[in-house]
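To close the section, here is one more complete example, presented without commentary so you can practise reading it yourself. The ligand is pyridoxal-5'-phosphate.
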Amino acid sequence: MPLEAMQRQEPIVSESLHMSPDEFRAHAHRVVDWMCDYFANVEQYPVRSVCRPGEIAAAVPDEPPQNGDSFDAIMSDLDRVIMPGVTHWQHPSFFAYFPANSSPPSVLAEMITSALAVNCMLWVTSPAGTELETRVLGWLARMIGLPASWQGVIQDTASSASLCAILCARERFSDFAVNERGFAGGDKAGRMTVYTSDQAHSSIEKGAKIAGIGRENVRVVPTDQNYAMDVDALREMIEADRHKGMSPIAVVATVGTTSSTAIDPLRPIGEVARQHNLWFHIDAALAGTAAILPEFRWLHEGVELADSYCFNPHKWMLTNFDCSAMYCHDADVLKRTFSIQPEYLRTDAGGVIDYRDWGVALGRRFRALKLWVVIRSYGVEGIRRYIRHHIDLAQEFAGWINEDPAFELLAPHPLNTVCFRWIADGSLPDDQLNAANKKLLDAINDTGEQFLTHTKLSGRYTIRMAVGQTRTLRRHVEAAWENIQRLAAGLA
Ligand SMILES: Cc1ncc(COP(=O)(O)O)c(C=O)c1O
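Output:
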């Protein structure tokens, strides 16, 4: 296009294409008002979305709009089309899975992050992104009592952190040969083994699949009556594998299992790992947050024996999804596992961290900002008060279950999650109780007043009550218990 024509066209394009600063300001205020109303009214929504499969997709046209819609139209469709398909994780009666809670300071920080929209892949692509990440992860390490020499990095999720740990284990074991030559032709293919308990999160198995270890080579270590890893069994399985010519490379322990928040014994597991030269990773996705409480520091007894560790501030620490804090005893292994140096990413900056070398993705969001804002806004004491509140509520709920002969607890409840089932008068066999408890859970969730989820423990259908939402108060837990008792009475 001739220059003259371009000059003629350019202002017209930019004026008509983008929101003007004034329009953006007005829309942004409207969005903030929308958010305030949402927080104020969140209890009026059914916690779990009641929409049917395909309903939301059917309300969104097949074809994209050829010309832009007005922001008014978009906001009105947000309420009309999208909101019915939202399950309200920020509802105070969200007791399902584990929480993914947020907080006003974290939401504000996310707004700033999205305005800056930087990519923190290298130090030079945003020095503040890198240096704040290092600093804030240092704060967090001190808050939960990790060794001072460990170095941290923010991954998107605990699943990614576990994958990184398994890849590090593979590379350290093979002296970085798999990175260079792959498994092909090597004598190691199909012979590496990874150990984790029968209560570990499925992401460990997934990580082992992706890392080329193979699902069959994940050894599932049995657990004791408290659902914690049986260390004698671990030792025997490692020795039996060695005897068969297999190569044990890693053990993954869990602090706070997904089903019941069981705590694997870190010190004896760490000692076995040291003895057999295994990479020792600790997955504390939810429970790491509880270690901020001095009275829960015992959760990390033996943590210093680990090679890597992760917990998710995005679960229980008031920080919007996604934000997973991963630490390494020797970050050089992590860097050697992931580092790659294309010409177009070389920089002259010396003595700096380029976090792109510390994980799978090149591009990285400025996640440290929300952690910084959350920790500064609440302070360590504020976060402690809020975690204690959840744990106290869960303990009180467990007490109610214990006192009612029509219910029983199915696992220890050291933290914020209570596993239980309805047992009627105690005379029904397990298969009938399994069906009845599924019916009870469906009935609770169909009221829309609460959302709880289930697991299986020792073959028994188990209802889980996980207390961890930012706005949960005692009255919400009481209402849940009343609803559960009322609906269970109808089953009898
Ligand atoms: C113990 C444990 N590990 C890992 C995960 C996976 O977390 P993410 O979604 O961050 O990958 C969970 C999820 O609940 C979990 O409970």
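Once you have examined the tokens, check your reading against these statements. The longest strand covers residues 247-254. The radius of gyration is 25 Å.
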